[in-house]
Sequence to fold (352 residues):
Amino acid sequence: MSDIKVVVADDEILALNGISNLIDRTEGYKVVGRAENGRECLRLIRENNPQLVVTDIKMPVMNGLELIETCVAENLAVSVIVVSAYDDRDYLRAAIRCPLVYDYLFKPFRNEELFAALQGAGSFQKKYAGEINDESGMALLVTLIFNNDFTSLQNYMNEYFVRDDLSLQEMKNQCYGWIMHIHSTVFADNKTRSFDSRRTMKKVFEARDREELQEVMTEYLRGCCDRFVYNDNVTVLVKSCLRIVRSEYGNEDLNLNYCANKLAVTPSYLSGRFSRDMGQSFSNYLNTLRMEKAGEMLKNVSLKVYEVAEKVGISDVSYFNKLFREYEGKTPLQYRKGIMESDYENENEDRH
Fold:
């Protein structure tokens, strides 16, 4: 299979060279053009017909947003990964609504974040071009997750990781693509819990051998079966909001206004989109996530209840206790006692 062609655009020469070099070191991807402004990037896209474009937002002559809009107008079949600084939010707000934009990264980003975005966008392009068989690979994994068929997923992993035609790095690249595709197509609703795919990507990046990589992916897919439900109506804006919530749930200042400000939209607009896409309000989703995290932390008896409350972004212990009881049907201390009693009973059963 031929390499996926990529054009990179950034007016900062160090960033341009750094991103280009990272892409060239990624198996299956090849940089076919570098540009320091949007107009030059557009010329390279027209001449080289790349599948992917990695572009900065703020650039001279033609900025990244104008570049993307021109690609849409000319019906250029590319997927775009936007690289942006936090203070570029006004541009980003428009960019993330564009159907060509697959993902975005905030500077500075980690290498594995770029690799993951590349694999996700690249896999999307391959599927769009018909290079991926719908009965295997990504499509099969998603189908098995929808069916909650972890046994078949486990069997697929067992077969995949004994292949001798792929290097460890090629397997990592494939895993990045799987995770990104699953992350973008399978989301939690009010009956299930969120799942941290970014943490899994870091584990994939750090895996030392096939066995460790297989363990990471098997754990991830088990979690997907347990916690994810299908939702194909989640927009990039809401996905971006979910990223913020999942990474900053411990921030006491985290609320709808905080996320709206980061995404450069009005709170009412974000609230409407979130409720429509997720089937629940922003506050309900945030509280559910915080209570789930609190339940996990309460298993650690060395943590006081007020410490757990602070770790999930709630400084008022009375409010935390009230909220926890609403979601779990018992107080934090009752919940912890139940866990300890269950563990004790299990130990006794094991002895007998």
Summary: The first helix runs from residue 13 to 24. The CA atoms of residues 259 and 328 lie 26 Å apart.
